[in-house]
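cron nightly-structures :: item 1 of 1
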Amino acid sequence: MSLPEQNVTRNPKLRTVCDRCYELKEKCQRITSSGPCFRCERLSLTCLRVRPAKPCGRRIQHEKRNHVSRKNAGNQRKLQNPQSIIEGYLDTLIDLQPEEKELVKLFLNQPESMNHLTLYSSSQAEQQQSIVTQLPNTCPPLKDAYLACAMTIQQFESGYSANMDTSTCIKYISKAMSTLRALPVLTSEDAVLCNALGGILAFSIYSAIGVGAPEVCAFCLSTTNQSVLVEPTGREAQNDPWQSFLVLLETADCLVYRRNPTQNPRLPTSTVDSRLGLSVPLLAYYHELAVISNSLVTAADLGILSRLQKQLDNIHADLESWQPSRPDQVLDQFNTKDTVNLLAQAKVYRLGALLVAHRLQHPFGCEDSQAEIWSKEAMMELEMARLVTKSPLRFVTLPFIVAAVEIRDENMRSKTLQRVDDYVDHYAPFLRKGTKIFLSRVWHERDAKLTTRWFDSIHKPCPVMESLDSTSFGNPHAQSNTSQSPEVEMY
């Protein structure tokens, strides 16, 4: 006779998967039951199993129903006291000095610190939440990048006139670069970590040094595109918040120097990006324009030229009818200020892409009236958004410069130079200085008929950056045997 179900004593095998692999739903492998798993050991992470152990087997129905609510409640408990989470995991980093821990804590504990890393205000808390909740998985590889980023943001908060300890910041950047070069990228979560490290590094490099950020972006994008194992799809693409930022910086650099960008990665289009908002789908057009521009440099065959012109016509037609997806949902989800910024940024990026395509087909002096219309429209959109929100729009450097080169009126040119500090990335002081010099020179070259297109200018953008000792800061064309800060060199 079988015993009643309630009298059966079960003795299931308890789970041994570490917390990181459990959250990622990955196979957790280890040599011994007490040792770290292969993934945590490879990424230099603390292999923890502190969640309550549960028996194997199928969960009962009410447990399934309550799974989502328990998960949400757990996340809320974490966010109620992020400082304790930060302190707990910083304590595991025994090589940090007390002042370094305080610097990182100040950066991670204050949502307003994320103001410099985001487009719209309501994403500041979201950005902080993302960093804090992922801190156990990312802190060891990202610690030096966090320190460099925290140091530059501290200068913004106190006023950039303060003297930043550039040598110390470069030390953190150099160590983070070494971590980036050695970081294994075998899985999708490795790719997300690589892009996060590269994105924070690019931000810090633009702030503290001024040269080398596009090379970092290219390195990350090429590394994460090397294997089909790391190609982001579905949910994985949605959880890579830095990828679009890397694509933007590298594509902008390739447009300026008419180089081929890294293979175009698939970017999520169903979410509002914290830096590019609704403009992420437009990156595909900028990427294609950079490829076409590079091809036009050497193309001589009439068949190839005809095909490239057809591609430009198709891009123009697409951009003419393009509009952000689901703008009605944006109006429902965001406050007035954020909605204005999101819609204005998308329109400016669309106009900027139209201007790039236009100049690839028509040199200065040809079809200038249409270019001038788009330029004025872009500048008016920036100014209207600034008037409504009482602050300049962020992350619009590329379309602002593209629109600015089309200005021919001297008074408007003078006003545009004054607006450089508003619309060129505020975290990049070297870039702002270089942009002012570039615009002045390209306007002069255009008036004197020395150049036919801004990307063929005699003087490329950011000559202030080029005047620095870029050998020390990772110029990929520099000698690799230099003794100055070799850790910074990427190649």
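cron nightly-structures :: done
Residues 325-466 form one domain.
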